[in-house]
Amino acid sequence: MPSSQRGPGSGTPVAFRIGAVSRELTRAAVAAVQAPSVLNTQPWHWRIAGDAALLYADRRRRLAALDPSGRMLVVSCGAALHHACVTLAAEGAGFTVEPFPEGEGDLLAVIRYRGPAAPSVRAQRLHSAIPVRSSDRRPFAARPVPEPALERMRRAAQRVGAHLQLTWSRDLTDIATAAGQATAAMLSDPACRSELAAWVRRPGEGDDGVPLDTVAPPGARPVPLRDFTGTGGGPSITSEVDVGDREARYGVVVTDGDGPNDWLTAGVALSAVMLTATAEHLATSAMSDLVEREVSRRTLRHMLGGVGYPAIGLRIGVPAAGPAPPRAPRRPAIEIVEVVADPVPADGSPSGGAAADA
Ligand SMILES: Cc1cc2nc3c(=O)[nH]c(=O)nc-3n(C[C@H](O)[C@H](O)[C@H](O)COP(=O)(O)O)c2cc1C
């Protein structure tokens, strides 16, 4: 439905409308708000213009102490990009993705609509997992993760140009060492400690950050999770469950290079792996603490035989019995997704691809 506004300086009313293609791209960007992000910073901004959806990094949301290079910010945006692409593919939209069309700036990717396509069954499966997935930091059930599901997760990463390296029990010492190094580095850096504290929220407080009731309880686990409270303690959502992650599997998303384009690919792969796991009724939680500091990242790289660049760690398991963990909040889509309406020419004829579809 066209809406009327005054043309700039002309005094003449000009009609604007949101074309069907813009609406489809907007739906994809809104779905991407549910993507995981480091400390739930949601560091992205979408601009929908005609047949294109432009994904920008919102650098105001970068973690200056924990993520000075912006690597985790770009990984987070990659996860949002994948959520948007899955939504389009599930709905039968054909599209292309151009990463970093302007070089290494804030414009991370452009999705361009290319016309209708057969809806992808695989994408539909992943799309259904979007509203169900959430970070599960509770100790997992003492049941092994089925190998075929892990193989599907591995292939999901491969399909988007990254690798999911699954670790074995012999690697546990290295992963645990990396986690210990990460915790020590974080605790010894006052800037990191206060940044972490600034992004941890009381339940129901704010629309970003990590709510305390989603944070893992302390306790004996083979690989400790990020200590969000920085105290070695913290509120528990699982005080009755104590299986200590004995059957957890750990994975590392690995990329061939270590530049912004590779970080974006890593985020796409992280989302692909997590949504595949959710569709398999498995639970996951990301572990970027393992790679944020050089010391722990080196340990992982050594564990992987020096092949590729560890982009982010992942914990995978069968969810514990009981209610799912509370969901982390999201910022309202209106703050994140900007839609540029198409002007309607004076004769009312369709203008451009988007309006033509209205
Ligand atoms: C790049 C990235 C890094 C993350 N690092 C960690 C981490 O180190 N520890 C952790 O428990 N969760 C981590 N997460 C999970 C986020 O905290 C989580 O996605 C966010 O709080 C939103 O919650 P949700 O996943 O339940 O939607 C990370 C997620 C992303 C995308």
Characteristics of this structure?
4-stranded antiparallel sheet, NADH Oxidase, single chain, disordered N terminus, alpha+beta, 14 strands, binds flavin mononucleotide, 358 residues, 2 domains, 5-stranded mixed sheet
Task: Give the structure's gist in a few sentences.
The chain contains eleven helices and 14 strands. By secondary structure, the chain is α+β, with helices and mostly antiparallel strands. The structure holds flavin mononucleotide.
Q: Can you list the ligands bound to this structure?
A: flavin mononucleotide
Average predicted confidence as pLDDT: 89
Number of spatially distinct domains: 2
The CATH superfamily of the largest domain appears as: NADH Oxidase
Spatial order of the strands forming the largest sheet: 5-6-4-3-13
Rg computed from alpha carbons, rounded to a whole number of angstroms: 21 Å
The best one-word shape is globular
Strand content range: 15-25%
Question: Structural class given helices, strands, pairing?
Answer: alpha+beta
Query: H/E series, N to C?
Result: EEHEEHEEHHEHHEEEHEHHEHEEH
Main sheet overview: 5 strands, mixed
Distance between the termini: 8 Å
CATH top-level class of the largest domain: Alpha Beta
Query: Which fold does the CATH topology of the largest domain refer to?
Result: NADH Oxidase
Task: Please state the second-level CATH architecture of the largest domain.
Answer: 3-Layer(aba) Sandwich
Helix content: 25-40%
Poorly predicted residue ranges: 1-5, 233-243, 351-358
User: How many alpha or pi helices?
Assistant: 11
Q: Please give the number of β-strands.
A: 14
